[in-house]
Structures are given as C-alpha cells and as structure tokens.
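retry 2 of 3: previous attempt timed out while embedding flavin-adenine dinucleotide. Reduced batch size to 1 and resubmitted. Inputs unchanged:
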Amino acid sequence: MNEHRSILKETVERLFADLAADRNADPRASWHAIEELGLPGLLQSQEAEGFGGDWEDAGTVFKASAIHRLEIPVSETILARSWLVGLSLKSPEGMGGFLLHSVNPAGPAGLERMLAAGKLDWVLALGDKSWRLVDLEEFGFTSNGTRPSRAELISKDLGAALIAEGPLDGGPQDHAHQAALMRACQMAGAIEAMVALAIEYTRDRQQFGRSLSSFQAIQHQLALAVEESAAASCAAASACQAMTLGNAAFEIAAAKWRVGKAADRVFDIAHQVHGAIGFTREYDLHQFSLRAQEWRRDFGNEGYWAREMARAVLSNRPKPLWHFLTARHDAILAAERAGAGS
Amino acid sequence: MNVHFEPIRAATDMSALRADVRAFLDEKVAHLPAEVRAQSWSGWDDGLSAAMGARGWIGMTWPTTFGGQAASQLDRYTVVEEMLAAGAPVAAHWIADRQSGTLILKFGSDDLKRELVPQIATGKLFFCIGMSEPNSGSDLASLRTRAQRVDGGWSISGSKIWTTFADKSQFMIALVRTTQQDARSSRDGLSQLVVDLSSEGVTIRPIEDQTGAAHFCEVFFDSVFVPDRMLLGEEGQGWAQVTAELALERSGPERFLSSHVLLEAVCETLNEQPNDAMLALLGEWAAELWVLRQMSLSVASRLERGEAPMLEAAIVKDLGARYEQSIARDLSGAFTASSFSDAGSAIEPVLTYLVANSPCFSLRGGTREILRGIIARELGLR
Ligand SMILES: Cc1cc2nc3c(=O)[nH]c(=O)nc-3n(C[C@H](O)[C@H](O)[C@H](O)COP(=O)(O)OP(=O)(O)OC[C@H]3O[C@@H](n4cnc5c(N)ncnc54)[C@H](O)[C@@H]3O)c2cc1C
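retry 2 succeeded.
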C-alpha cells in the first residue's frame, strides 16, 4: 500500500472508530467530522475542489465504513458526488445518496431505507435515460410522512425540490457497476468484522473447561471464515485497482459475485460459533451479518453477476477464457506502469 | 486479523514472454487431445521437458552459473501458468524445477550444485520427493526410514510410498531419520539426502490410482549407500528444511489450474443460449479463477520481495483446491443433453478423468485439514 493511502486508511479508521464508539452521537455532528476531512469529495479531482483520491482510496474508505458500521451515508455521498462532477454539477452540501431506477433484479434496500427514514439531504436519481438531482430537505415529506419513492423521484413533479435534471447519455450502466463495487467493498468490511468477532468470541468463551477456539472443529470453521474473508477483500481491492486504470466491468462483476459468496459462508460460520448470544439484538454480530445479506441483493446478486460474466466470456469466443483474463490483467498492470495509477 | 492480499503492482512487462510461451504451446501442445491435456502437471513427456529446458524455461530463477536465467519469480510464474492453463504435460521436470533444484541450490554443497542443477535446467534430470511412508502421512515427523552412518556416507533402509513418478526419475530427495529415536522430539534428527535411484538396493513398484494411471510408487531401500556429499543442509535439520519447502509450494498457479482444460473445453463447445444453470456456472468459474489468480499473484509478488507469507500461501492452496475440485462435479450436475455442440463429445472423457482425479487435489502437498490447522496456528488459535 502506498504511503498516502496508508495515511488515509489510518486517519479514516481512527475517525470511524471514534464515531462508532458513541452510538447515540448526533448524525449531524458525525457528518461534520467527516466533512472536515474532506471525505465526501474523495473521488472528485482537486480541480473540482475535491480530495483527488482514486478508486483504491475510495475502496479503503468504503470498507472501513462497514467495519465500523457507520449509519451515515458516507460511501453513497462520495459516489454520488463523483457522478455529479461527471454531469458538470456542483454538489449540494450535506448527506447525499443515489438511486438507480431500474437496474438489476433487487434494488438497494439500504438506500431506500435511509431515504425513507429522512437521513438524506439530497439524492441523485438515475433513470434509464435521465437523471434528477433532488433536494430532500426542500421536498420535506409527503402527506403520508414519507419521502418520494424511487419511481416518483424520476417521474413526479417535484416543484422547487428539483435542483436540476437532464438526459443520461449512455444510460446508467457504468453507475450501476460502480455502485456494485462500492457495495462489494462495504461487504468485504462487514465480512472482516464478522470474522474478527467470531475469533474474539471463541477465544473468550469457555465450554467443557477450555476456550471454544481450542477445539479443532471450531478452528477449522474459523480458518474457512478467514479464507473467505481474504478472498472477499482481495476481490474488492483488485476490482478497485482495475477501476482506477480504466473499464472494470468484468472485475466488478467477479468481485460482487465472490464477495456475495463469502458473505453467505461467513454468515453461517460466524453465527454458528457464537451460539445464542449472536442471535440477540444486543450483540453486534447482526449489525454486520444481516447488513451483508441485504447488500448481497443490492446492485445485482450473485446469480445476476454470474450470468453477466458468462455472457461476457461467451461473447469473447473463440478466445479462451484464459486469454481474456490474462489480457485484461496485463493491460491493468501496463497502465499502472505507464503511470496511470498511483 | 493480519491477512494480507494486496493486489500485485506494476510488474515488469510479461507480454513478450507470454507470447513466446503461447507460440511454443501452439506448436507442441494445442494438438493433444483434451483428455491428455487434462493431466497437466500429472502428464509426463520428456520431449516437452527437454524442449522447455532448451528455451531456458526450467530453473528460470536460478543463477546463470548453475544453468538458470536469473529471471524473476514473476517470469517463472508466467511460464508456469501458461503451461498449466494450456494443459502442457509438464510432470517430468515439474518437481525438479519447482522444489528439488531450489533445495539443492539452497542447501547443497558447491560440488553437488555443479553436478546436478545445470542438468535439471536442461530438462533432462528428473526428481521425486520421498517424504510419505506407509505409516506416516500427515504425521510426517513419525517417519521411520533410517540412514545409518557408514564409511564415506550413509546407508538407508526402509520404504517410502505415494512417491510421484519415482519410477521415471533419476533422483529422489528423501527425508530420513539420521539419529536415534530417543531424540527430544520426533522432528529432531531428520535429514534430507539426495538418492540416486539407480543405486543397488532400491526397488520401485508403481501403484495404480483410481483413474487407472500408475503415477505414484512404493519405493523400498535395502541398505542403499548414499555418499556424504549427497546430504542437503545440516544433518538433523531436515524438518525445518522440509517445512520451508512445503510452505513455498502452496500458492502457485497449479493450485487453481488443475481442472482448467475442462473449463476451456466447456467454454469452447457450449451452445448458444445455454440454460441458466450452465450460464451461471461458467460465470462462477470465471470469477473464482480471477480471484484465485489475484490472490496467488499477490503471494508471488511477496515471495519476489523475499517475504515468507505462510498464512496466505496456505489460504490460496485450500481455496484453490476447493475450486479445482468443484469444476468437474458441478458440471456433472448442471449440463443437459443439448448443452454442447458436436465438438462437446470431447467433454465426456475429461469430465470422467477429473471427477476421478480431483480428490487428490486436497491431499497431495498437505491435506485440507492440515492446511486449516496451519491457518489456525498462524492466527494464534493453537
Ligand atoms: C496423487 C498423490 C501424489 C502424492 N505424491 C507424493 C510424493 O510425491 N511424495 C510424498 O512424499 N508424498 C506424496 N503423496 C502423499 C501425500 O503427501 C499424503 O497423502 C498426505 O500427506 C496425507 O497422508 P495420508 O494419505 O497418509 O493421509 P492421513 O494422514 O492418514 O490422513 C487421512 C485423513 O485424516 C486427516 N487427518 C490426519 N491427521 C489429522 C489431524 N491431526 N487432524 C484432523 N484431521 C487429520 C487427513 O487430513 C485426511 O483427511 C501423494 C499423495 C497423492 C494423493
């Protein structure tokens, strides 16, 4: 890891850990601390008054936000703001997010929940052919006390709450990929946190006169969980690397698929080794395990991405899969050598 | 949790070397039937090994004074992954290139290095590994084959089993007991000896495996004389040497490419409009392959920097074996009569072979359970 990224990682982890330590903290105060670091503009270039980070920096922040289970949409804001730059728009202040109107089987339930709960100040809604930037503070709530739904955001008359709108050339495909990668990084974080909890718990908990982690059956389950977590983190980080250096549709699909698999296997192991305590509302595990399950479905689940990858591979025939993979990776490393990366 | 799989960074340009290897493979390997290519690092062809040696592709990382190219680990990685992905029958020089030569360079006397290493690099001198015994598998340190001091060397008595290609190799590096059993621990008093398999007193009996091939053997030693200069490293240090040797062979491309010929055969002959199950399976393989290669390359770049990522290497092997093993069996459960074009008839024998061969992927070089024990130990759980 290069030096500037290790500093970013350390700083962000320290901040997120502090924010997470106080569960009753005012989200506005937490957000203020995040803005002070300039994190919301992480993926905006310095010319665009941003932080000037790249996707590997962003991946580090996305993952850390999940490890510390931040309840505020820092990742979503970072991504939405970078898209606003692409649309030549100045970003509104405050906590933002984005909604993709019609991509992939299951929608991002987490974002909709944040939207419904009134946690977002603004949202960028992307339809198939158009986008809208909406001021949610201005919108207030409907007569039912709710925020506008995804469909309403794209089609309804929003009056003064509509900051800007326009056509989406090329559709929301690239955005959907990036959103999937953001989730993959967050999932890698949640998975790592589940494994850490499982290791810590089985070390402390005694049964039959010894700690659970001294039983071989438990050790082997933990080893498997660590393997899965390693694969998830490597997949997410590798896709971020590919992203920095150009088009990463394949790597993102592969990462979201692999991370989803890992989330599922680790869910099983982490809950099992925790026994009943892990099933309680009080204990932290569900904050990672249930969220990771929800995230599996966001922006394309494993079945969706597996079929997408297969179509990409088949469309490359008669080139062998091996040549397809190695050519992509050689190109990524070549671009890095040429100085595109950091 | 201290597990590190940083993606590999801007490496030197591999594309020219990759193209050279592919041209070689087009000429020497592409025409072989898929079921022959499926054997890959279990497939023996001394002609191919000699041709690779002539191109400098064996012992690539070794010093030029000993017949190597002083190439980087990543150059070697590129050659090996290309060979395996294409299903080149590389078994003849495989062990000598991957383990024995490096071991001799590290622990052998200068005379022994000069005598053996350049010949290995030509692709004409083959080695096997004599560790396992009938009563010592995972518990390797319990082994009983003994070497006694005699005038000018050692005399070995005992037997080894599951020795891959002992019948076709000129030499074995054997792990034997050189001091008395009453040492403090069974791990003390072990040593590594280079044994010339044409020596008097050596009997080799091939064992047929469930695929019908007879590639591993039982080897008996009846007072076999081994000269002093054939001792590797220090007497009694065999255990430490062997552990280091095994640790470094856990994370290479052979850990995720053993079933690759089948994957490509499916990819090549799958009909347009495959059913959803086949489509999903192909996508899953592509994703797994991509991630495992990323993980394996990450370890390779750390090895190149002189680090010793034991934990990560064990992780790659366990995950890799599971993936390699799943390919043939998952395919068995997913394809239909209309999945493949006519050329798909090539799938059947490859599938049958790999279903039968796949159990060994999580046995050879340390079993799945032993690997998970190593991971647990590295995590500080035991
Ligand atoms: C194709 C093939 C090629 C081989 N080539 C070579 C070679 O060239 N040279 C060589 O020296 N050896 C070779 N081997 C042998 C290989 O290294 C051994 O098979 C391996 O070390 C396991 O030993 P074992 O077969 O005696 O199984 P065992 O050790 O008897 O194990 C049987 C089962 O019990 C499990 N087990 C054992 N101990 C424990 C424990 N403490 N906790 C939990 N589970 C445990 C194992 O994981 C395994 O699942 C080869 C094996 C195969 C299959």
